[in-house]
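re: ur question from yesterday

yeah so i grabbed the chain u mentioned. its 198 aa long if i counted rite. heres the sequnce exactly as i have it in my notes:
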Amino acid sequence: MRIATLSTVAAFALAVAACNNNDSGSDISTDANLAEDSAANDVLGANAATDNEAAVALPTDAAGFATAVAATDLYEIESAKLAVAKSASGEVKAFAQHLRSDHEKSTAELKAAAAAAKVTVTPALDSEKQAMLDRLKAASGAEFDRLFVEQQRTAHQKALNLLQSYASGGDTAELKDFATKTSAAVKGHLDHANSIKL
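ran it thru and got these structure tokens back, copy pasting raw so excuse formatting
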């Protein structure tokens, strides 16, 4: 009888140990699944943000448009400076130098068009563009190059949408002309960014 009881207790202990091992395995699996779910939600969240941004009305007033373009140009100039200093890719550095030159020219042309429209332009980064620059400053090596090109694709698509929207529905002729002219250069930058393979 005692042997049977010990055997039963031993079998029960082994069953409990097996369940505990399965539970810890389940915890690992659950943790991995949670990480995958979190990553999927991050992607979905990013897509939702992009969809929401598309729904946001772009400025059609001269001052709002000029402020938005000035912020975009400043981001492009500052991010290009970072890329020239930090990039490990000759292709990325050349692209960055081209961006800096074109966006410095764009800023000068924006200021001239805004002055003709009696609008003051003071370039300043908005919180979104400052956060983008901060992420670039924190990155290095291949991660920097990947992030820089990814940000250029996003920023130029948004800039193109802004310019095209103002060119078709803006309230000031001088700035509408600027928007039409600048759209072609921004489209060229977007195409270039899309062609870079890292």
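noticed a couple things. The CA atoms of residues 73 and 103 lie 5 Å apart. also Confidence is low (pLDDT under 50) at residues 1-55.
anyway ttyl
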